[in-house]
Amino acid sequence: MWNVKQYKKNYGIVKAIRVLVHYGVVATKKIKQKNSNQLIIDVNQYKLEVIPGDLGISSELIMFQTHEPLTKNFFQKN
Known about the structure:
It is a single chain. The chain is α+β, with helices and mostly antiparallel strands. It has two domains: about 1-35; about 35-78, no CATH class. The protein is about 60% helix and about 15% strand. The chain has four helices and two strands, in the order H-H-E-E-H-H. The protein has helices at about 5-10, 15-35, 55-65, 70-75; strands at about 40-45, 45-50. A two-stranded antiparallel ribbon has the order 1-2. Strand 1 (about 40-45) and strand 2 form a beta hairpin. Helix 1 (about 5-10) crosses helix 2 (about 15-35). The mean pLDDT is about 80.
């Protein structure tokens, strides 16, 4: 694995800083996801965080990937 000195030597200080920031962000996201009891799902091409045990809108989004599916279907047909 490359270290910061090698990145600085080969690509410059700006690239080395970008790499460090990138790896920091990735590590933070992994820690957050690991400690979270939330689920990320796709709804209408958007990513939403939902709570798996929630009896409200989260359960509806997990099952149908939409809010109020009957109303949505009614409007789409009419």
